[in-house]
Amino acid sequence: MNSFFIIHNSSLLFRQELRGNKLGVHFRRQQVIAGFIVDFYCHKSGLVVEVDGDIHDLQQEEDARQEKVLREMGLRIVRFRNEDVMKNLSVVLGKIRKLVSRNSFV
Q: Residue ranges of the chain with pLDDT lower than 50?
């Protein structure tokens, strides 16, 4: 299966599940925070969700720098592989649901 297909479909699947506050909180897509573009961000719970494709294997230093800055801001970051979103969406959503319910800023 083509990488673009996996990335596009995992992002689309994930976005559909986060739409309409299905997890009880609002997520913004492609949010700019401290000069970084994060895949999904929930302000209420201070949670950044990244869905990583193969490119992230090549940019681990940049990802680490991004995480350091965001953590210093008090944000929590969770990363999932595209493949996990495609194959185990319910497990991924369950983990996010736990993180969201565990801590809210508001």
A: 1-7, 56, 106
**68, exposed or middle or buried, with CB in 10 Å at 0-12, 13-18, 19+?**
exposed
Which residues have C-beta within 8 Å of that of residue 33, sequence separation ≥ 6? 41, 48, 70, 73, 75
CA distance 54 to 17: 22
Which amino acid would we find at residue 32?
Answer: V
User: What is the per-residue pLDDT for 66?
Assistant: 93
With CA atoms as reference, report the closest residue to 13 among 33, 31, 29: 29
| Nearest residue to 51 (alpha-carbon basis) of 1, 21, 20, 96 | 96
Question: Do residues 91 and 17 make contact, with C-beta atoms less than 8 angstroms apart?
Answer: no
| Cα(32)–Cα(36) distance, integer angstroms | 5
Domains of the chain are 3-102 (3.40.960.10)
| Structure-block tokens of residue 57 | 């294997």
